[in-house]
Amino acid sequence: MADYVIPAPEQAAIPTKNGGAFPVRRVYCIGRNYAAHAVEMGHDPTREAPFFFQKNPDNLDASGQFPYPSRSADVHHEVELLVALKSGGADIRVEDALGHVWGYAVALDMTRRDLQGEAKKVGRPWEIGKAFEHSAPVGPLVPIAVTGPMAEGQVALTVNDALRQTGDLNQMIWKVPEMIAYLSMYFELQAGDVILSGTPAGVGPVQRGDVMQATIAGLDALTVKVV
Ligand code: MN
Asked: What's residue 119's pLDDT?
């Protein structure tokens, strides 16, 4: 036991469907991983290597509520498949990558789009747009033994029952095993790392009082109220 000089922060964790919690070490997020979303954000989807940013483990929030963040007037929803790793390593081969997956969940990459936009314009990091408190609502993790590899299946998000985002996991530019392999060339992945795998087209703003429902075929729906 370390001789900490202040009380140790609580271990970030997300619930699993059949009880027990999954402790989270790092949160990697891939950008522009669906062509139609890359196009709606003004980018050419055909010429880009994958790129990643990070959220903080304690940004994950399974409460079903999303407190509208400070200092933004344009907060967007992004529905994403969350991939949770039970093991890791460096230079993982694509064909071995799924062997490191513990399970999957539905998650939201909530984004202060106005602040992200300002950061992009001047070449600054994205943290204030992406890595703020409660910025990653998440549903229960389901083991890969139950879900299978999840290479395809509908992804959708409604706001107040109106369809906003729709796509299919098979439209990812970089597939889950490729993402794991690519990340592991730059970072040593470990058990407890999770990856948000990008969002399909249709991102847009939410307001206080809105109810978002995010669905991915084969997983439990995630319902989140903006408060
Ligand atoms: Mn995203």
From this structure: 97
CA of 81 to the centre of ligand 1 (A): 10
Query: d(Cα 60, Cα 188) in Å, to the nearest integer?
Result: 21
So what's the architecture of 13-226 in CATH?
A: Alpha-Beta Complex (3.90)
Q: How far is the CA of 100 from the centre of ligand 1 (A)?
A: 22
Query: pLDDT tens across 75-132, in order?
Result: 999 999 999 999 999 999 999 999 999 999 999 999 999 999 999 999 999 999 999 9
- E strands, 78-128, are 79-85, 101-108, 111-112
Q: What is the pLDDT of residue 1?
A: 67
Residue 197's pLDDT is 98
Rounded to a whole number, what is the largest CA-CA distance in the chain? 52
Surface-to-core class of residue 111, CB atoms within 10 Å of its CB (0-12 exposed, 13-18 middle, 19+ buried) = buried
Q: How far, in Å, is the centroid of ligand 1 from the Cα of 89?
A: 24
Q: How far is the CA of 152 from the centre of ligand 1 (A)?
A: 18
Cα of 214 to ligand 1 centre, how many Å? 14
Burial class (CB in 10 A: 0-12, 13-18, 19+), 24: buried
Instruction: Outline where the chain has alpha helix (H).
Output: 35-40, 94-97, 113-121, 127-130, 144-147, 176-186
